Amino acid sequence: MALYEHIFLARQDITAQQVDALVEQYKGVIESFGGKVGRVENWGLKSLTYRIKKNRKAHYALLDIDAPAAAVHEVERQMRINEDVLRYMTISVEAHEEGPSAMMQKRDRDDRPRRDGDRPDRGPREGGFDRGPRPPREGGFGDREDRPRRPREDRA
Prior knowledge:
The protein is an alpha+beta fold and 156 residues long. Helices cover 19% and strands 31% of the residues. The protein has 2 helices and 4 strands, in the order E-H-E-E-H-E.
């Protein structure tokens, strides 16, 4: 049997319990084909980069699957029919990752600069406000003050 990682996005207006019910439903389909589901991660409600079917957010869920291809095809067929599933993606992998996925890992926030001004001093800015007035431009497009204005032509 092949190894797969399967991710799906569910509509924002369903509850977390309904997302869990969807996961259990698809686990049942996979197990009925002789496969098994390993790790199941519910990533929760996250904002989408762009709207999908008028939804700005979606519930994300990840499944590690060890099943024949027919089981994956059946799960994808049922997801196409289900109106609660916005998107899904299944990829074949050589081996499943151990431990939590990258989305579930806590990132070490101590090594990044904070937003409250705890940055190292970078000195005066070159292109900032402390530069003084601009020098006059030489010829070309930018010297409007030096050119005489043309009189307006009356349109009658």
